[in-house]
Model the fold of this input.
Amino acid sequence: MYKDDKNGKIGFFITILILIFLVIFTNLDQNILGKLSSPFVKISRSAQNGFTNLSNKMKGNEEYFSSLESVKKQYEDLKREYERLESENQKLVVLEAENKTLKEQLNLAENYKEYETIPGYVIQKDFSNYSKVLVINLGSEDGIQTGMTVVAERGLVGYVVSVESNSSKVQTIVDTASVVSGFISNSEKSLVARGLLDTNERIKGTYIDNDVVINEGDSITTSGLGGIYPKNIIIGKVGEIVNTQNKTNRYVYIDVAVDFNNLSNIIVIKNK
Amino acid sequence: MRKVRIIIFFMIVYFLIVFLQANFFSWFNIKGIQPNLFVVFVLFVCLYTNSKIGQIMGFIIGIFTDLIFSNSVGISAVLFMFIGYAGEILQKRFPKNSKITLIIMSSITTAIYEVIRVCYRYMFFSSEMRFLPFAMTLSIELAFNALLIIILYPVINKAGILVDDIFNGNDTVTKYF
Done:
């Protein structure tokens, strides 16, 4: 009984102490309380910040991954769009080239409208260093025949020497085997022009009459003599006059009107 | 069967050369002058197969070349056949597994081929013929061919040994040593 009373009293005092402690602690100055609680708060806040950051990051990652998916989708869409535009662009480039070729051929046809013509283009050039023969895309199926004259926008190219079904070979005026009869523009006197081995830009004009006054820059056109080339097609201009001791041997170098190194579009004049 | 495969391979190489001559060398040239890979190719075929095959191949290649490029069919066929014959004579006198002799052989055959062609054009097409421009053009062409042989020699040599092995049982080395 005594023992129980003793334990009861101790319990009673402990309870009173706890109550007093609580009353004193809860009624202390807030600053002091803050100072006292600060380390705990710091620790707890750091922990709380850590948890919050982690939580935010997890949340952000979710957003990040979800936005990545949409970026990927956008990328795929843009890629498809780019491919479509590129394909369209290529088509436009082809159309532009085609348009250019057709325009050139139209101009060509306009230049030679007095003749019946067939437009075409060069598909191959001679590999040999000693002959200058071209292959064009027109053949017997297009109505091409041997001996037809071939011209370009600026002037005479040559004539057809052989014909296959879909292509023809053209001997150019710069070929060493080519002979063209031409007129000197200011005199209406003729000369004979031949190709040279070492150049595509000049041909040699010989058999010039003694009484002809010839000047650099004079135009040379076809004379129509010889039966191959029609009259008045431009061959080129006199680039150099070489006078010899004997005047009958004098000759000229003619700068050909056509750029044979970059020749692509041509037209074939049908024989009348 | 291996011989047939090699001949088919030769035809593919021929068309590759046609492409190179018609397109690549039309801008990759020296002063507007192209090499003549056809002669080098025919010479190679003649040296490493045997004379008969070389001459037949030369004839066929010549016909094709004339049909594609030239305005007179037949001249290249005859000349390439002649190169086949010349190749046989040359390979008896010179070792073919040497860069220098290959260059000399190619230069001799190219020069003969071009001189005959120009003379032919002069005779039958009244082509203009001036020695100096011709000599100049030919010199550049030979130099170009020589440079290409030097560059391609490792390939030519390896392919030559392989072809020689198939057609002649590879006595290339033992023949000279």
The interface with chain A takes residues 21-22, 25-26, 32-34, 36, 38, 68-71, 114, 117-118, 121, 125-130, 133-134, 136-137, 141 of chain B (CB under 8 Å).
